[in-house]
Amino acid sequence: MPSSPFCPCGRADAKGRPLAYDVCCGRYLDHFDVIPAPDAESLMRSRYSAFVRENAPYLLATWHASQRPQTLDFDAGTRWLGLEVRSHTLQDPTHAQVEFVARLRDAGGRASRLHEKSRFVRESDSAGVPRWYYLDAAG
Known about the structure:
Elements: H1 26-30, H2 40-52, H3 56-61, E1 79-92, E2 95-105, E3 111-124, E4 130-137
Antiparallel strand pairs: 1-2, 2-3, 3-4
């Protein structure tokens, strides 16, 4: 688990100061049952933070049921280095797309970038609470 008090997603306040984990993605990861991410970008950022923190339960819970894997394994030694959100497009009230680039280094030390346009859908959960879910990579 990272030792930095700053959120791994890199979100900053209006003055450009990095936000603390507990007021950024932490509120969604640590309280998923009561605090849903308000938009697709926030969900995507929280999922990035969940990958950094290896929080499989959160990742699985925020994956749309139609695409969700049964289990999720993390690559040992992967180090997430940063996130850049390139765009967030609300296509209609229940569909959105987020384009991002995540930088990482694998266990062998090789750096790479994951560039993805992710699709998200907003649906009510079993309690009737509207939530955003990761659907898949577009295209």
